[in-house]
Design brief:
The complex is a heterodimer of chains A (244) and B (839). Chain A has 244 residues and is α/β, with parallel strands linked by helices. Chain A contains nine helices and ten strands. In chain B, 54% of the residues lie in helices and 16% in strands. In chain B, the strands form three sheets. A six-stranded mixed β-barrel of chain B has the order 2-3-8-5-7-6. Chain B has a six-stranded mixed barrel with strand order 13-14-19-16-18-17. In chain B, helix 2 runs antiparallel to helix 8 and helix 25 packs parallel to helix 28. The chains are: A alpha/beta (244), B alpha+beta (839). At the A-B interface, helix 3 and helix 4 of A face helix 14, helix 26, helix 27 and helix 29 of B.
Chain lengths: 244, 839
């Protein structure tokens, strides 16, 4: 019972199909998974394995063809657009590969944006703490186009954390960054999520990133082929796993 | 060749890819061509109509109040090329009918090889111009109204007063000729129509011989030199001819319309048309420019890629020019066709309305009728110019965007993000609301926001500005000149001169009859639906000792009435000379003159003192007064007015009421009118004015002239609106991904619509602000000019309230609709697709 109460995210037979007949594509096919509060989970797999589709459905950005997604015990697969918007701004923080900051807003505004959309009062000390943690204190007024890739992604991380969501979903957060910056950003993301007690689900191609996770889910052809702590040494082995 | 093909194909594919932009550009070019063609074609029609009207009345001037001796000198004057005379022989007496018997003649026309005076200058449908003493000709409707069958040879008995004075005489006449027939609305009271019938020289001679008729002919004449002289020289020549025969300048009336046309053919019309067309070109090029400008900004990456792939600056320019050319190739010919058909179908309607309006007055009927249906509008040069102007507009609009495209550097362009500005930081807001997002986006591209607001704003300024004049062209104002208050006016018809033979027609005698007695007013009030009856007094001032033309004209008689303290404001607004102070005027018994033209004609001046008699029935009250102000208000005041207090001090014994105004409730208007017509028909001294008839007369002149102008204006407003549609579509399409991200971060659909319509609202508010401030300012100036020029009888400023409200509503609703349509279309794409959108 206690174990159940710790589950923040759960899917039941989650399917997303595109097309029909011969051209039917099963992007995700009967995925069942459970993620606990505070857990750091990475999802790996080859291109087209269904990682992003899964993440989108977990993040209420896309509707499943069938199956359920429970976030904090609430089935979000059946909610309407407005309710989903609320879920997204209150319970989920997104981090995209391309940072996706709003170019017309400065760093501070980008970070407080989800809070503003929800009409919530600002916990200024908390936000400033995040900004300091991510090393953006000097850049609060800067516009996104003046920041480096690493800075932009740190800003995106701050934005994802600011609304104190229970779940942070990151889609290839280091994909656009060089290795060194990517490592830094990932370390910051992990530290912040831990510091603020948030659950972190990261899609990645990067083995090192996957290894940082408490648990790694491997997908192939829309199905989970392995689930556990990643213990492999190199990418070839990951590929070999996927083949199996 | 191969290169050109590639560039052409690229242009074609880009047009196909950016469908909505192509469509908007196409509509803008189409509307521009329609406007230019329609305006040009209307100009051709106006010039042709003027030419035809002027060729019907191609005289240079008229000389009035001539003596037969003066006519004699004129007919052999060396400077005179052609000379027509016309004499009003007598007033027709037939109940309430207003009509005159006229004799007209062509005395000289050096232009004609053989003198043909058989029709005396009239266009006869049948028969001949009266020759014998008893012959008469007119239009069939005149004879029908007189109860005579309109066929040649019909006999009729006609009563008339020679020179409008003297005894009523009766003679028998035979119809000798028929003019073209006219249709006249049956609902118009006889007293509001003016008839004209022509008689022979012989009958004039007969009455002249018996000493009853005093010939006071008017002449219309042409002088030599039309082709060589300027307007001013022609005027000098005409005045010198008048001086030669000893005629005062006051009686010379130049045919300015014709003279200015022949001495300067069509310059004014062409100038006005050119200015309007330039304004259209300016607005259109702004709009088309803003579409291309926004297009280049949006496509900067694509242009950069093309450059990176090796496209030369020339090829890029070629590509954009081809884009313009392909759209124009479709839009311009269609625009030419619609632009030509629009006036081709509308112009005869406008003219028809003008004609039916002028049918009220038989004098001006002929000219309008003769030209209808024969106006030539097709002009190849005009169509070619309109096409060239449209193409030039497109080329002009493309110049800057092409320069921008040429400057795009391939490296920068591929990295380009639309927000790239020189700004590195932004002060920003502490919290971010939907409104913060709205304003952040508007300020992100200030130039685009400004260009859009300016384009829309300026076309709306034009709309409001012209509306200010058009809304002041009011049928009601025209109607209110005859019925200043209430729904009906019954006025006492009295002789303006002293009627010796029928003294009962003189006002001082009429008032003794007490036609507007309390009993009569009670009778009117008892008609169901009559709510109120108001009296308006008038009295005759008479004098024999004022050496002024003022008294010569009407046998030393002028009407006098009063104004109230409340009227001072209006009188002061139109004050021309002197000053108006109610209390001073009461204390000193001062009077105001309310007619500028007559004031000058009579040679009056401020400070003139008069010793006169007031005719209070049979009693004469000596009256000394000073003229202290000259004004020309819209309302119908008597020629001379004093203060109400002075009037009350006169101690009049007769009831001086000359007009009564009746107020009827809407429900009973028709039955009240019917009852009044019956009452009025029983007293020949009553003339009745009904609001519906006066409005109809007003409308006939106003509406169909006004509506086509509104149509043209709306087209200009639509062009401006296209700019808004373009900006909004572009700003949303280019931000598709960004909007997707905002939604991923929790922006709900409702918040999205609020944000986008907020952006639209800023455009609307900016546009309204510009158009309502500048538009009203220029509109008022335009109105003042129009009033001064007597454009369409404008006399009073009406704020274009409904037009402003309409404009605001169209902008608001239109902008909301665009927002809803675009966001609906956007929703068809899933959120994921939008976030992935890399374009």
């Amino acid at each position: 019972m206690n174990n159940q109460a710790n589950i923040i995210l759960k899917t039941e037979n989650l399917c997303k199909y595109y097309g029909s007949g011969d051209s039917l594509v099963k992007a995700t096919d009967h995925i069942n998974l459970q993620i606990k509060q505070g857990e750091f989970v990475s999802i790996i797999g080859k291109s087209g394995s269904g990682k992003s589709t899964l993440l989108h459905m977990l993040g209420a950005l896309d509707n499943p063809t069938s199956g359920n997604v429970f976030l904090d015990g609430e089935n979000i697969a059946s909610l309407k657009a407005d309710a989903l918007s609320k879920i997204r701004r209150r319970k989920i923080g997104f981090i995209f590969q391309a940072y996706n900051l709003i170019p017309a807003l400065n760093v501070w505004e980008n970070i407080v944006l989800p809070l503003g959309l929800d009409g919530k009062p600002l916990d200024e000390a908390f936000i400033n703490d995040i900004i300091a943690t991510l090393g953006l204190t000097e850049k609060k007024r800067s516009l996104p186009n003046t920041l480096s890739g690493g800075q932009q992604q740190r800003c995106a991380i701050a934005r994802a954390i600011a609304a104190k969501p229970s779940l942070i979903l990151a889609d290839e957060p280091t994909g656009n960054l060089d290795t060194k910056t990517g490592d830094e950003v990932m370390a910051l993301l992990k530290t912040s999520a831990k510091k603020y007690g948030q659950t972190l689900v990261v899609i990645t191609h990067n083995e090192e990133v996957a290894q940082m996770a408490d648990r790694t889910i491997m997908l192939a052809d829309g199905r989970i082929i392995s689930d556990g702590k990643l213990m492999i040494e190199n990418e070839e082995e990951v590929a070999a796993h996927a083949e199996n | 060749m191969q290169k050109t093909d590639t560039v052409f194909n690229l242009a074609l594919q880009r047009l196909r890819y950016n469908k909505s932009r192509t469509l908007l550009t196409g509509i803008a070019i189409l509307l521009t061509t329609i406007l230019l063609t329609a305006i040009g074609t209307t100009g051709v029609a106006i010039l042709d109509m003027n030419r035809q009207i002027y060729s019907l009345s191609d005289y240079h001037t008229s000389f009035n109040e001539l003596t037969p001796e003066q006519v004699e000198i004129l007919s052999s004057h060396i400077r005179v090329e052609a000379l027509d005379t016309s004499e009003t022989f007598a007033d027709i007496i037939n109940g309430k009918m207003n009509g005159v018997l006229t004799y007209t003649d062509i005395l000289r026309d050096d232009r004609a090889e053989t003198a043909d005076n058989s029709t005396h200058g009239l266009t006869l449908e049948k028969g001949h111009y009266p020759e014998a003493e008893d012959e008469i000709c007119s239009s069939p409707i005149f004879f029908r109204r007189m109860g005579v069958e309109p066929v040649l040879g019909s006999k009729m008995t006609l009563s008339f007063r020679v020179n409008g004075k003297g005894e009523i005489l009766t003679d028998e006449f035979t119809v000798s000729g028929l003019l073209p027939d006219v249709e006249i609305d049956e609902g118009i009271d006889d007293s509001r129509l003016m008839w004209n019938a022509y008689v022979s020289k012989a009958v004039l001679q007969k009455y002249a011989d018996s000493g009853l008729y005093q010939s006071k002919p008017s002449a219309t004449l042409r002088v030599y030199g039309e082709d060589e002289l300027s307007f001013d020289e022609m005027e000098d020549r005409i005045l010198s001819v008048a001086a030669d025969i000893g005629l005062d300048e006051m009686y010379v009336k130049l045919n300015k319309a014709y003279l200015s046309t022949v001495t300067d053919p069509g310059t004014e019309v062409i100038a006005i048309i050119t200015v309007i067309c330039l304004v259209v070109i300016l607005f259109s090029s702004l709009v088309i420019y803003s579409i291309y400008y926004v297009g280049v900004i949006t496509d900067v990456q694509e242009i950069g890629k093309l450059k990176a792939l090796g496209a030369s600056r020339r090829q890029l320019a070629g590509m954009l020019y081809w884009q313009g050319a392909i759209v124009s190739a479709i839009a311009v010919p269609v625009g030419l066709l619609i632009g030509f058909l629009l006036p081709y179908l509308c112009f005869p309607l406008v003219l028809w309305a003008y004609q039916s309006g002028s049918a009220i007055n038989s004098y001006s009927r002929d000219a309008a009728e003769a030209v209808i249906g024969q106006i030539h509008m097709f002009s190849l040069p005009v169509l070619l110019t309109a096409a060239a102007a449209s193409l030039a507009t497109v080329a002009l609009s493309l110049r800057k965007p092409i320069r921008m495209a040429k400057k795009v550097s391939p490296v920068e362009a591929i990295r380009y993000q639309e927000n790239t500005t020189d700004k590195k930081s932004r002060v920003g807001h502490h919290t971010v609301k939907v409104s913060t997002l709205t304003f952040a986006n508007l300020t992100r591209n200030k130039k685009r926001t400004t260009v859009t607001i300016l384009t829309m704003g300026l076309s709306c300024v034009l709309f409001i500005c012209v509306s200010a004049v058009l809304s002041s062209v009011s049928a009601e104002d025209i109607a209110r000149r005859n019925i200043p208050k209430g729904d009906f006016r019954i006025s006492l018809k009295y002789a303006h001169y002293y009627d010796n033979e029928y003294p009962e027609n003189n006002l001082e005698n009429l008032v003794q009859q007490n036609y507007f007695s309390d009993a009569f007013l009670s009778q009117l009030l008892s008609i169901e639906g009559v709510e109120k009856v108001e009296r308006e007094p008038g009295i005759i001032l008479s004098s024999t000792d004022v050496p002024s033309a003022m008294y010569e004209e009407y046998d030393n008689r002028q009407p006098l009435s009063y104004f109230t303290r409340e009227d001072v404001a209006e009188l002061s607004t139109y004050l021309e000379q002197g000053s108006i102070d109610y209390d001073r005027m009461t204390a000193n018994n001062e009077i105001i003159c309310t007619h500028v033209y007559s004031f000058k004609q009579y040679g009056l001046s401020i400070g003139d003192s008069f010793s006169m008699k007031l005719l209070d029935g049979s009693r004469e009250i000596p009256f000394t007064t000073t003229l202290t102000a000259l004004t020309q208000p819209d309302s119908n005041f008597s020629f001379l007015i004093m203060t109400q207090d002075s009037w009350n001090n006169l101690g009049l014994t007769c009831d001086p009421t000359t007009n009564i105004y009746l107020y009827a409730d809407d429900e009973h208007y028709d039955s009240v009118k019917e009852a009044l017509l019956k009452i009025v028909s029983e007293n020949e001294h009553f003339t009745m004015y009904a609001m519906d008839v006066e409005l109809k007369i007003g409308h006939s002149g106003v509406d169909l002239t006004r509506n086509p102008v509104y149509l043209l204006l709306s087209l200009i407003a639509v062009i401006g609106f296209i700019s808004l549609i373009n900006t909004m579509i572009t700003s949303i399409v280019t931000r598709k991904k960004e909007l997707g991200i905002l939604q991923a971060l929790g922006l709900s659909d409702r918040q999205l619509v609020r944000m986008l319509s907020g952006e639209g609202l800023v455009f609307t508010a900016g546009t309204l602000l510009i158009s309502l401030t500048l538009g009203n300012f220029f509109g008022y100036l335009f109105y003042k000019w129009a009033k001064q020029e007597h454009f369409m009888s404008i006399s009073r400023y009406h704020y274009p309230l409904w037009e402003s409200i309409g404009l605001a509503l169209v902008l608001l609703i239109g902008q909301l609709l665009i927002t809803l349509l675009i966001s609906k279309k956007m929703k068809k794409e899933s959120l994921i697709e939008r976030i992935r959108n890399q374009d």
